Amino acid sequence: MRSFVFSADKFLELDALPEQLPSSGFLWVGCSRDEFEAQLALIQPALQRWQTGQLVDLHISGLLNAQLTSHFDYTSWYDLMVFRRLAAPVPEVTSASGAASASGMNFVQADTSPVGFAVFDRVLLTVHPSDCAVREHFALRLAALSGIHGEGRTAARLPSHPADLMLRMVNHMVDGYLDLRRLLTRHHNHLQQLLLDPRSRFNDWQLLLQARTGLHDLEDVCEDQRSAVQEWIDALDEWPDEAEADKRRERELLRVRSRDVLEHIERVLGHVRRLEQGAETVVQMHFSALSHRTNSIMRTLTVLTAIFLPLNLITGFFGMNFDSMPWVHSRTGIWLTVALMAAVALGLLWFFRRQRLLGRSAD
Length: 363
What we know:
Elements: E1 2-7, E2 10-14, E3 26-32, H1 33-38, H2 40-49, H3 57-63, E4 71-74, E5 79-84, E6 114-119, E7 123-128, H4 134-146, H5 154-157, H6 162-196, H7 205-237, H8 245-318, H9 333-354
Parallel strand pairs: 3-7
Antiparallel strand pairs: 1-2, 1-3, 4-5, 5-6, 6-7
Helix pairs in contact: 6-8, 7-8, 8-9
């Protein structure tokens, strides 16, 4: 468990939970889910000591639940935001034969462990998964910002409110997916090329089904994220008006950041839906191409059957067991029959090509 103090233009990490809140600024307490469960006996009394109010038991069980969906809830003394991250490594699609690898769909079924935020007036409590790098990323980034001197912009760069820091973390998690979408798009494009390649015999339909299911699950996660942020924005509008100009400006900046986070989630949701539509379209094109190929083969076989049918009739006619038949005893009968059969075959071939039933013009 790590605790940090934001005061004016300073950002300091504390060795332990302080006895009292700083005179100005706010406190950030970040811990993993296991640490939160183990240190709950220290966190609850500390919240009571800081006169912020303790966490509700129902919210505590939600923060400890690794399967909780993104949602927003509130009390009269704090707001609770649970936001499922969209971050997981995407393995490259590699195969010696050029076929898609089943492990390449791991990102679609991404690790979306929830991150919990309890936003008090002057305290931000965050509960992360054990392998989440968001806390360490912001600890290093904010420490670097607090070390900038001489420009007079450090205070503007540091969060001025617990909600401000919460929105920055949420925005960072959403942008983490935006950074990975290139690899996800590449993988789906690879599957689409396999489906549309006329020389490919695509039969890994289980992989395609997993891809589509993963996209549907990802869309559900994004929908929950959007609903949670929208509820946060609605609750932010219901906060009591501030009389001080600085407080009103701070509130307006929170609204701007909230709308920016919502816009980023909309971008992610739009990208996921485009991938879903692309997958659906390619599957339809794949079956249309198969149908067209089958029709072309059947047309060719039908034309060949129509050409050889008269020839079979001629050979069958002259194969009858009769003694008095034309050209049977003639030396030139065989050649005349062959010429007749060739003429019939060439005539039918010319007719079918003229009717555009053969060749490239038929396609």
